[in-house]
Design brief:
α2 (53-72) crosses α9. The strands form 7 sheets. A 7-stranded mixed beta sheet has the order 3-9-10-16-13-12-11. A 5-stranded mixed beta sheet has the order 20-19-21-22-23, with helices on both faces. It has a 3-stranded antiparallel beta sheet with strand order 5-4-6. The protein has helices at 17-31, 53-72, 89-93, 96-99, 164-169, 171-177, 223-240, 288-297, 323-334, 366-378, 391-401, 413-416, 437-445; strands spanning 35-37, 49-51, 77-79, 101-106, 113-115, 137-140, 144-146, 156-158, 184-193, 208-218, 248-252, 264-272, 275-286, 303-305, 310-312, 315-322, 335-337, 342-344, 355-359, 383-385, 405-409, 418-423, 429-433. It starts with 16 loop residues before the first helix and ends with a helix. The longest helix has 20 residues, at 53-72. The chain folds into 3 domains: 55-94 and 146-333, BirA Bifunctional Protein, domain 2; 101-140, no CATH class; 353-445, Rossmann fold. By secondary structure, it is an alpha+beta fold. The structure holds glycyl-adenosine-5'-phosphate.
């Protein structure tokens, strides 16, 4: 079975508190059906993960909030959903066929294979031997396949390593069909695949993952303004849904770190237990992509700006986020071990289950009343019904799942037509009239 591997966690080394925290979170994710290994019954597949009932709700909430804030609530961004397999010329034009590579070395002692830039002090991360590596080779990260029955060079296709190329390939379609005017954006959420040399740190570096990308097309003279705008917007987005500010950093790339096509780039980084690492990149990709696709497809992808009476290739500002990395960051950020309980303090909009309903005992019509409340809430939010065991244990189970509200139907309910709503974080309890419960919860869940 594959296990979580911390960045510096060699076999036999004792774990530091951060590694322990990560290990506990990984085991909670498994125990409470957030995240499982892919094909676990066969020993797993390195770099691939399955989301269970709680995990799928958590990740969907994150993707839906991104979509709502990036597409639906704006008038200048359109959405698309492009195919994963594309004409292989796309990846020639984008530069991926030639240069989407990582430097790779093998350890001559234990035969382990590593990214050369992840080796510290020339020491093998697995067996610890020093200076025993092969020469650096370059390894293309794209998964290659063939489309159709013939397996020759004419049928080669790649699983997309980023979603944005589908957006560039559809730029003209959107301009010609959607009455958009520069500045405007095109957004997409979808799977991407990279044959990472060392998938690690739980879902952080996977071989199959989801991206949430938006390409914002603007007049070249306005690119610096929009670059700043999207850096601010995206940084604030994580704070809005509860990520702690002291753990979230915006790091501007130095000139020598920039991709050859980029005029600027900044990473939003998060302090994971295994180190500070990239959650999202915001790049000024200039006019590189539209020009390259024009050149390779022989279709003119320049844009005629009617206001300026001018034709030009728009510049692109790209906020590119990972849905799985964001999910992991929200999990890490929410995770707390207290003396009496383990709790996931998710923002109510992110939480996979919004409310749990408990009848206190099995008498006085309590289950019927509880079921009535449950059925009403279930129509609107993901709600859980639990009538098993001591109420304290029921609370603990919901705390571990990150459920922000537990509603108990007790002996008084039949007399005062009210229930108790317990808040996960403060554990404070409010007595609320039964017919006001939906309104009460909506204040938190839909605000
Ligand atoms: N279109 C630009 C682009 O793809 P990137 O920095 O390579 O840029 C963007 O990827 C985001 O995709 C990253 O910030 C990260 O959140 C996510 N991502 C990239 N590789 C990943 C991997 N192997 N596993 C999980 N997420 C990944």
């Amino acid at each position: 079975m594959l296990v979580f591997e911390a960045k510096v966690g060699r076999k036999g080394m004792s774990k530091n508190p951060q590694e322990q925290k990560m290990q506990s979170l990984v085991s909670l994710c498994r125990r409470r059906a957030f995240i499982f290994q892919s094909s676990e019954i066969y020993g797993g597949l390195n770099g691939c993960w399955d989301y269970g009932p709680l995990g799928v709700e958590l990740k969907r909430n994150i993707k839906e909030l991104w979509w709502k804030d990036t597409v639906l609530s704006r008038t200048d961004v359109e959405g698309v959903d492009c195919s994963i397999l594309m004409n292989s010329k796309v990846w020639e034009a984008s530069g991926h066929v030639q240069s989407f590579t990582d430097p790779m070395v093998d350890c001559l002692q234990c035969r382990g294979r590593f990214r050369a830039d992840h080796i510290v002090n020339n020491q093998c991360p697995t067996c610890g031997s020093k200076n025993k590596f092969t020469e650096v080779r370059h390894f293309n990260l794209m998964f290659k396949t063939h489309v159709g029955a013939l397996e020759d060079s004419s049928s080669v296709a790649y699983l997309r390593p980023e979603t944005c190329q589908g957006i560039f390939a559809n730029f003209d379609n959107i301009v010609n069909t959607c009455r958009v005017k520069v500045p405007f954006g095109i957004a997409q959420i979808g799977k991407a695949f990279r044959n990472e040399i060392n998938p690690r740190n739980f879902t952080f570096r996977s071989r199959e993952f989801e991206q949430m990308e938006m390409e914002f097309f603007c007049n070249p003279s306005e690119a610096p303004k929009w670059f700043q705008y999207w850096k601010d917007e995206r940084y604030d987005w994580y704070l809005k849904y509860g990520i702690k500010k002291e753990r979230l950093h915006l790091r501007e790339h130095a000139k020598d770190e920039l991709a050859h096509y980029a005029a600027g780039c900044a990473d939003i980084e998060y302090d994971f237990p295994f180190g500070c690492a990239e959650l999202e990149g915001i790049a000024n990709r200039t006019d590189y992509d539209l020009k390259r696709h024009s050149e390779f497809s022989k279709k003119d992808l320049s844009y005629f700006d009617q206001g300026l009476n001018q034709r030009y290739f728009p510049y692109v500002i790209e906020p590119s986020a990972g849905a799985d990395r964001a999910t992991l960051a929200f999990l890490v950020d929410a995770y707390e071990e207290e003396a009496e309980r383990t709790v996931l303090r998710f923002h109510p909009r992110i939480a996979p289950i919004k409310a749990a309903v408990f009848p206190l005992v099995n008498k006085d019509g309590m289950p019927e009343t509880a079921e009535q409340i449950f059925n009403t809430l279930k129509k609107r939010w993901n709600t859980f019904y639990d009538d098993k065991g001591a109420v304290g244990r029921r609370y603990r189970r919901q705390d571990e799942a990150g459920t922000p509200f537990c509603i108990t139907v007790d002996g008084e309910t039949s007399k005062d037509q009210a229930v108790t709503i317990r808040h996960r974080d403060s554990m404070a309890q409010d007595r609320i009239a039964m017919d006001k419960v939906v309104e009460y919860l909506a204040k938190y869940l839909e605000a």
